[in-house]
Amino acid sequence: MKHKTRKPFPENFFWGASTSAYQVEGANLEDGKGPSCQDVKEVPEGTSDLTVCADHYHHMKEDIALMAEMGFKSYRFSIAWTRILPKGTGEINQKGIDFYNELIDECLKYGIEPIVTMFHFDMPAALDERGSWGNPDSVQWFVDFARVLFENFGDRVKYWLTINEQNMLTLVGPVIGTLMIPEGCTNVLKEVYQQNHHMLVAQAKAMVLCHQMLPE
Asked: How many other C-beta atoms lie within 10 A of the C-beta of residue 96?
């Protein structure tokens, strides 16, 4: 049998689970969280919105205990930008910081490595109104968001991912509702690639910042 001749997985292999904030947390406008593009989009008739989802926000401790029971070694989750910065920039929502601090600490309590995705398809609605990723300022918006994450969670989080599935976010974004195309745009393809470029620059700058602030 083939499985008898294959090498075993390494002892420290990251068996685990992966989620995105807007798909599991629910509590989409609770405790100071601002609306993201996912909260303001038109939901197809007959489907549920994002106010409850799996209610991970309220059942996070139970969920992580179940992960531990299943033997998970890692949990990759995304941080909702608007739970940290309700308007995308500016004022920080302390209750959002508290939630992710508790989530990270709960993972570590069970020996589960927290792996953070910084952005997973949930642009702050307030930033969409300012041009979203099509605005060159989006590079700095993302870097400033990254700085807040590194300052608050970098002492415990050793693995960071920047933008989830950027190819899907950009190339089929207009279809799946994850990319804002400005009204009156006459060249959608050009707009998509311009936004893609801003994301690439934003990620590069966030990575540089990460290595500066968190050398380990």
From this structure: 23
Per-residue pLDDT of 177-195, as tens digits, reads 788 888 899 998 999 999 9
For 163-178, the DSSP string reads ETTHHHHHHSHHHHT-
Order the strands of the 74-78 sheet from edge to edge: 16-18, 74-78, 113-119, 159-163
Q: Which helix (H) or strand (E) holds 115?
A: strand 113-119
% residues pLDDT > 70 (the chain): 100
Q: CA 194, CA 197: separation in Å to the nearest integer?
A: 5
By C-alpha distance, which of 42, 40, 53, 24 is closest to 120?
24
Report, as an integer, the average pLDDT of 150-165: 97
Beta strands in 124-184 (DSSP E): 159-163
| Segments making up each domain of the chain, as ranges | 13-39+49-213
Q: How far is CA 45 from CA 10, 48, 49, 97, 208, in A?
A: 47, 8, 10, 34, 43
| Model confidence, pTM | 0.94
Fold designation for 13-39+49-213: TIM Barrel (3.20.20)
Residue 105 contacts residue 97 (beta carbons within 8 Å): no
Residue 138: its pLDDT value, please? 98
Q: In b/e form, how buried is each residue of 20-37, taking b as 16+ CB within 10 angstroms? A: bbbbbbbbbeeeebbbbb
